[in-house]
Amino acid sequence: MEWQQILGFYHTARTGSFTKAAHRVFRTQSALSQQVKALEKELGCLLFERIGKRRLRLTLAGEKLLRFAEDLLERQEALKEELETAAGQKTGRLRIAAPFTTLYHLLPHPLKKYVEAFPDVRLTLLDNPQTKVIDLVKNGDVDFGVVLASAVPEDVQSFGWLSVKTVLIVPQGHQLCRPAKVTVQDMADYPLIVPPNTPEYPMRARLERLFHAQRRPLHIIMESSNVELSSLYVEMGFGLCFAMIAPDVLPIAHRKLAFIPLDHYFRPDRVSVIVRKTCVMTPIKEAFITTLLGDSSSPPGETFLWDAP
Q1: Are the C-beta atoms of 94 and 113 separated by less than 8 Å?
Q2: How far apart are CA 270 and CA 32, in angstroms?
Q3: Which residue stretches of the chain have pLDDT < 50?
Q4: Residue of 222, 192, 228 whose CA lies nearest to 210
Q5: pTM recorded for the entire structure
Q6: Phi, psi of 241 (to 5 degrees)
Q7: β strands within the chain, DSSP E
Q8: What is the pLDDT of residues 160-183, one digit of tens each?
Q9: CA distances (Å), origin 266, targets 164, 203, 238
Q10: DSSP letters of the chain?
């Protein structure tokens, strides 16, 4: 089993195509196909099921080899970083995925500190919904993801970062700004701005269940996955919206809004950083976690998130 064979197999498995994988390893399609066949002959088992002329599907043996290849490639990258660190070089690659609001509000300050300390680290940031972030981490496409603790699956490792709570956003001076707890019956009397009805935004499903249990319909006037956009329309008097608040992190735009706690309906949550359980924590990765979790110098204010931070 040779390194180039493992690399060729890995990219073929990840792309599901000999043609696409060949471009990544700088081989011809036919040369890569022969490489994989030689690997199958050496191991004495099929690694792919050939479905038609172009479709490939991993066999059980192929899935096991893919896990081995992923671990090997990750360790190879980690070894390279450790050797560079030992030689006094703070270099390497760091890939982070998070939803837009997290990238916009929560990460700039700690990332600025990190980049100042590690200017030679190749940093890549990906803007994706929470469900996609989890998939990217599990598949090894990124080193870290930032999601809500309530969404973290059991097969990844997580580091708790910021506490968040659910609120109703209303214009300043609104009738619902009162000492008594706001109820579903109260909210049902107003037009609401809610996230899209897709798996990427679980807040929508939670709202649907909450209102259905009280036999009240959601009066939806607008769908938006962006809290900045939603809060603008709230200020205009277009409707009310929901968000999750991470207190004392970064200020949001200066709008005339009020934030009504909904703790009696929604449990508090946390923003968490997730990694694969098999991830090798190299010095630059450990430094990122230390910078992020140890960062307490952000200016006071409030950051607003959908349930996908």
Answers
A1: no
A2: 45
A3: 250-251, 296-302, 306-309
A4: 192
A5: 0.70
A6: -140, 170
A7: 48-51, 55-58, 92-98, 121-127, 144-148, 156-171, 192-194, 220-223, 240-247, 257-261, 269-276, 302-305
A8: 998 889 999 999 999 999 888 999
A9: 11, 10, 24
A10: --HHHHHHHHHHHHHT-HHHHHHHHT--HHHHHHHHHHHHHHHTS--EEEETTTEEEE-HHHHHHHHHHHHHHHHHHHHHHHHHHHTT---EEEEEEE-HHIIIIISHHHHHHHHHH-TTEEEEEEE--HHHHHHHHHTTS-SEEEEEGGG--TTEEEEEEEEEEEEEEEETT-TT-SSSPP-HHHHTTS-EEE--SSTT-HHHHHHHHHHHHTT----EEEE-S-HHHHHHHHHTTS-EEEEEEEETS------SEEEEE-TTTS--EEEEEEEETT----HHHHHHHHHHHT---SPSSEEEE-S--
Q: How far apart are the first and last CA of the chain?
A: 43
Strand partners, 185: none
Strand segments (E) across 41-91:
48-51, 55-58
Q: Give the H/E segment covering residue 134.
A: helix 130-138
> CA-based angle 263:109:298, to the nearest 5?
55
Q: What is the DSSP letter of 250?
A: -
d(CA 101, CA 217): 28
